[in-house]
Amino acid sequence: MVTLEQARMGNSPVLTSLMLGMSNGTMVAEKIFPRLNSTMTAMMLMALGNAANRRYDGLKRAPGGPFKQVEITFEGKKYTISQSAVDVPIPFEVIKEINAAMQLNQGQKMEIDRIGVSTGYQILTLDYEREASELASNASNYAVGNTEALTGAAKWSNENSTPITDIDDAMEVVRGKAGIRPNCILLSAKSYYKIRRHKQVLAQLSSVDRGAASLDQLKSILDIPNIFVGDATMDGQDLWGANTILYYTPNSLMTTTPFANVSLTEPAFGFTGTTDNGISVSPPFVKTDNETMVYRCKFHRTPHITTNGAGFLFQTTV
Question: How far apart are CA 189 and CA 41, in angstroms?
Fold first, then answer.
């Protein structure tokens, strides 16, 4: 008979819940690549063909006349999900010091657990952010004409540049390719700093608000409902560089994240395939050779771009 522990596949439900409850406000990978959960490490999604965006003759019908019949095709696309994992060792000496400072009890053990799990969580989510930023910042991953590298006076750090006009034009490019306007913008921290203080943006505000535009004011000025700022750094470098990305994500993905269950009948820019709710923690174990308690953290996830025409990449904005 399979025991409960076997059914859990060696994962610790208490520690996994602890890990799922943590957060890092600087991470935006799930904003541009929302999670889609799967029970397998390979998942098949149905993508609708372009039948809905074509012109058809003969749609007008006389009474008793024939009906125009169209052919709708669905293409199954297969996406794989990989695992990232890390072991976080807590030396016995550290545990001893903590135990000496406080009376040992369940709550104290949870503090030691929190150190191990939190460290693993931060490492794995930051690596996920790195992978997502590299995928979304690569111009070759976009449709032809859906990227622009700003140079010289066109950079948003130049007061004579036109970021609002640039973004409006890019929205039209996406609408023309994907048939729908972008509903999201991801600004790097550097891009956000410059655009909210740009004179073309400030000219849209009242004289009272001329210091810098807020996130909500930017949404109104740019006429887009969702703006996200990528603040994360790795080794002292901004992960999102000086990039800005416009993209479309179906509302069904945003309102039911992180574990939405949809098919790609809308031109979603991308998603993150996950298994086991993405994150899991094994029960801590002892390594006698170096006298440590080890916390093994695993993150099953892989970001994917699914519709390269549903996004637009600005590079070197500042």
Answer: 33
Rounded CA gap, 153 and 161, in Å? 6
Segments in the chain below pLDDT 50 = 1-9, 72-74, 104, 106, 257-261
Condensed to tens digits (0 to 9), the pLDDT of residues 91-139 reads: 888 777 766 665 545 455 557 788 888 888 888 899 999 999 999 999 9
Q: Which amino acid is at 239?
A: L
DSSP string across the chain: ---HHHHTTT--HHHHHHHHT---TT--HHHHS-EEEESSSEEEEEEE-SGGGS--S-----TTPPPP-----EEEEEEE--EEEEEEEEEHHHHHHHHHHS---HHHHHHHHHHHHHHHHHHHHHHHHHHHHHHHT-GGGS-TT-EEE--GGGSTTSTT--HHHHHHHHHHHHHHHHSS---EEEEEHHHHHHHTT-HHHHTTS-GGG-S---HHHHHHHHT-SEEEEE--EETTEETTTT-EEEE---HHHHHSTTSB---B-S---EEEEEEEEEEEEPPPEEETTTTEEEEEEEEEEEEEE--GGGEEEEE---
In this prediction the pTM is 0.80
Q: Report CA torsion sign: 152, 156, 158, 161.
A: positive
Q: Which residues pair with 230 in a beta bridge?
A: 188
Tokens 């935006």 found at: 28
The whole-number pLDDT of residue 80 equals: 75
pLDDT of residue 97: 72
